[in-house]
Design brief:
The protein contains nine helices and eleven strands. The chain folds into three domains: 4-88, Arc Repressor Mutant, subunit A (Orthogonal Bundle), CATH 1.10.10; 93-164 and 267-287, Periplasmic binding protein-like II (D-Maltodextrin-Binding Protein, domain 2); 167-264, Periplasmic binding protein-like II (D-Maltodextrin-Binding Protein, domain 2, 3-Layer(aba) Sandwich), CATH 3.40.190.10. Helix 1 (4-16) packs across helix 3 and helix 2 crosses helix 3. The chain has helices spanning 4-16, 19-26, 30-44, 60-88, 106-117, 130-138, 205-213, 226-234, 278-287, and strands at residues 49-51, 56-58, 93-98, 122-127, 144-148, 159-173, 193-196, 218-222, 240-243, 254-257, 265-272. By secondary structure, the protein is an alpha/beta fold. It holds the Pfam family LysR_substrate. Residues 2-59 form the HTH lysR-type domain. InterPro entries: LysR_HTH_N, LysR_subst-bd, WH-like_DNA-bd_sf, WH_DNA-bd_sf. Belongs to the LysR transcriptional regulatory family.
């Protein structure tokens, strides 16, 4: 078997054309280089050098081996450089997952700053529901996931870092009877139809908040995407919760109002694998600023 160290020594001898010169550069004795070259020739099945009165030159077999040795050593050197960059957090690929409303502004702004600070890292982004992102993280398909506990908690034991806690606002049609209020009491929404993403009957942050306010929210249409929810609210078919992160994306024909103190809140986390990449930790630091 041809060993990497032997290939490096072989390449140095070929470059210098001398066992003695290669020995001086590598810090070996001339006899040690001769022994290792002889062992390499036995492993290669025949002579690799023609011994001359002054120095050596490659045989045809030596020329062939050197072409392959140079390619192998170059690939190994590049692999070491890439690994070093990954461990420094300055290279490699960072696979990021984020739920939809985090992609309105929070994640894009963080990735912009991250790209300025770590230009050698290639970022790949996946959007999805928090539960699915955590499954992908657990499966090793993501390096960091931005997730929330809305609507039904955080269904994973992943290592998490709390990024923020935000209010959930209510989106109403512009002509709604409560649209003129600065703050809305959740109890005043007891007769409203709620447009949600969670399956009917599943406990959510909304149902918990409404229970504290003394009523059960009236379920309506189930719509997963925020843009779809806005369309149904605009049509007067119900009201919906809007995270503060997404408030800037609400269409102009709707109004968004904060809910009084008993209103629902959610937490946003960065989830990481047990052994996170340095680049993932760097991004989490930016997200948490």
């Amino acid at each position: 078997m041809l060993e990497t160290n032997d290939l490096r020594l072989f390449d140095e001898v070929a470059r210098e054309g001398s066992f003695t010169a290669a020995a001086e550069l590598l810090g070996y004795t001339q006899s040690a280089v001769s022994r290792r070259v002889a062992a390499l020739e036995r492993a290669a099945g025949g002579p690799l050098f023609v011994r001359l009165a002054r120095g050596v030159r490659l045989t045809p077999a030596g020329e062939a081996l050197r072409r392959h040795a140079v390619a192998v050593l170059d690939r190994l050197d590049r692999a070491q450089e890439e690994l070093a960059a990954i461990h420094r957090g300055s290279g490699g690929t960072l696979r990021v997952g984020a739920f939809a409303t985090a992609n309105v502004s929070m994640v894009p702004q963080a990735l912009k700053t991250f790209g300025e600070r770590h230009p050698g890292v290639e970022v790949r982004l996946t959007e999805g529901l928090s539960g699915r992102l955590l499954d992908r993280l657990d499966a090793g398909a993501l390096d960091v996931a931005v997730v929330s506990d809305y609507p039904a908690g955080l269904p994973s034991a992943a290592q998490t870092v709390l990024l923020l806690e935000e209010r959930l606002l209510v989106a109403l049609p512009s002509g709604h009877r409560l649209a003129g209020r600065e703050v809305i009491d959740l109890r005043d929404l007891a007769e409203e139809t709620w447009i949600e993403a969670a399956p009917r009957g599943q406990p959510t942050i909304l149902t918990a908040a409404c229970a504290r306010a003394g009523f059960t929210p009236r379920g309506g249409l189930r719509v997963a995407e925020w843009t779809g929810k806005f369309g149904y609210v605009a049509a007067g078919l119900g009201v919906t919760l809007v995270p503060e992160l997404a408030a800037g994306a609400v269409p102009g024909d709707l109004v968004v109002r904060p809910i009084s103190e008993e209103g629902p809140r959610r937490k946003v986390y960065a989830a990481l694998p047990e052994v996170p990449l340095p680049s993932a930790l760097a991004l989490v630091g930016i997200l948490g600023q």
